[in-house]
Amino acid sequence: MEASTPTARRGGAPADYAAMSLSPSPSFSHTPRSGASSSAHKPPTTSRHRDRGPLLFNGNSNSNSSIAAQQAAQLQQTSTTTSSKGSSGSGGVNIQVLLRCRPLSDEERRVGTPVVVTCNDQRREVSVAQNIANKQIDRTFAFDKVLGPKSQQQDVFNHAVVPLVSEVLDGYNCTIFAYGQTGTGKTYTMEGGGGKALNADLPTDAGVIPRAVKCIFDILEAQSAEYSMKVSFLELYNEELTDLLAAEESKFSDDKSKKPLALMEDGKGGVFVRGLEEELVSSAAEIYRILERGSAKRKTAETLLNKQSSRSHSIFSITIHIKECTPEGEEMIKCGKLNLVDLAGSENISRSGARDGRAREAGEINKSLLTLGRVINTLVEHSGHIPYRDSKLTRLLRDSLGGKTKTCIIATISPSVHCLEETLSTLDYAHRAKHIKNKPEVNQKMMKSALIKDLYFQMDRLKQELYAAREKNGVYIPREQYIADESEKKAMSEKLDRLELVLESKDKQLEELHGLYESQKVLSADLSDQLQTLQKRMKETECTLADLETRYMKANDTIKEKQYLIENLLKSEKVLVGEAQTLRSELENTAGDLHGLFSKLERKEKIEDKNGSIIQYFHSQLIQEMNVLHRTVSTSVSQQERQLKALEEEMQSFVTSKGKVHRKANIDQCILCLYKPKTAAFFRLPEDFKSM
């Protein structure tokens, strides 16, 4: 599954970092109770636990349901697959990371908050849309499992818890922790919505913890196993450890009488919490009550991002001891541990509205989560010293990050655009954590005979101490033990003196180094912040520069095209101007010619009008004259006819008188030729004048 980055929200996954080291190797000791000698199983720490039941409980196979049996078979198969996968290489097993995206809240839907996160359950990818330099850039992260806004609590349980429950029952130490921004559903995922179980059924919104508890009991009962189980509930608030299961000494105490606890080294590279109380449980209902009681004591407060924001980290641990028999009939005790961690969410103080004490809380939360982020980065990059000791949270999670524990991280994010920065931070951290490798180891099994022998030895020692104490009015111990204790005390005193001198010199060196470290740390933090700011600005500038270069190239091409068009247009313009000037001169000449032509036409029309009037006048005069001439000609013709007739008569008389008959015909012919043309012409003349 995919790793997730820290975000703030009231996560509800208590985890187990109790009086034992995170990778508990079971050890047993005797604890006197009410003056009587009684034996109880105790881990290798000074934590006390309540004997509320026998060491081993017999599972009632008659009450097991078929569902529990099927679940046991499924878990056994899952365990086999996971174990073979985890042990396939000597390089270790990667931390499993599951990514869960919550849906938009009613308020976010009401105001129409944009969604920037897209979950692809099939491809196990999450895409986040960013707007940089007016460009949308999508970042995609791949995880072991991705659950979208429509996912149910059962889906988280099936993918994150079921595989680890089988590992716990096989003797491994396993850790599940929720990591994300405040208000993204960590506590809801781990603890649920607050509904209580009805009969034997869990509510649909039950979280990882109650489902894991029910699953463990169902499997143990289905297997008819003899087992014992104990739980612890630890809170880390402002770098102070508190036992949430400790009895309240005063009902009027402001802090509900939570006792601060000390975090100790166990000498084997692990840590344990001194004074952390563990309670024996025999049923899931007991654990539900314990979980409810401890959750009520947790530090919560209302912020602008979450009405019930967890202000502390919580660790709920379940330790299981199971009796099993070897093929030789030897009884063995197998120990497994499940740590369920609910981290407080990282938050932007300006957005969460934290003030004064709340701001200090947020600062401590962010500080511990930043240390967790540095540990994750160091483990992934293999860059030398791992800063586990910089925070109590990382000290508690040391075995879960790069240690011998099987770990699953549930990263929770919001799809809202307002949480984009925190969402990207969570995804970055989760994606890095996915590459951390743990080297899980099965806890060593203890033979029942060795356990009984150890218990008998402790019982004898305690009986001697009890007998010595009853014989005197004070607390006494056997002489042999007293001498041994005094010798040991003297040797320890001498050793202590030497160590104090060494410690004093080391303290001075440490103080100097610490001062130097703090100054370098502040400088490094400032430089880191400046570097991140500059890198962010550089990326934005690079994106802007790339955009400007693209726009510049496009603009340059456009300018070249326009210049080419302008040059062609200028050439065309020059040609057109020349042609226009030529046409203008031609038009001017034509206009002059037209003006002269119109003047000539006007003069011509005037002359024609004048000539027409003159012609009319002469026509009328000519007609009159022709009429006169016609009359004159007619008169002349008639006179000529008379004269010719008279002449003819005279000629006839002359011819007759002269006697030249042969010349008479010639003369007649000549007269006729002379007479006819003249007569015809005179008669046509009036008609010709009329036609004019």
Automatic annotation (TrEMBL):
GO MF terms held by the record: ATP binding; microtubule binding; microtubule motor activity
Span of the signal peptide: none
Entry keywords, A to Z: ATP-binding, Coiled coil, Cytoplasm, Cytoskeleton, Microtubule, Motor protein, Nucleotide-binding
Family annotation (PROSITE patterns): KINESIN_MOTOR_1, KINESIN_MOTOR_2
Annotated Low complexity bias: 58-87
Cellular component terms (Gene Ontology): microtubule; spindle
Annotated localization: Cytoplasm, Cytoskeleton, Spindle
Coiled-coil blocks: 452-558, 630-657
Function: Responsible for microtubule translocation. May be important for the organization of phragmoplast-specific arrays of microtubules. Plays an essential role in stabilizing the mitotic spindle. Required during mitotic cytokinesis.
Protein's UniProt name: Kinesin-like protein
Origin species: Zea mays
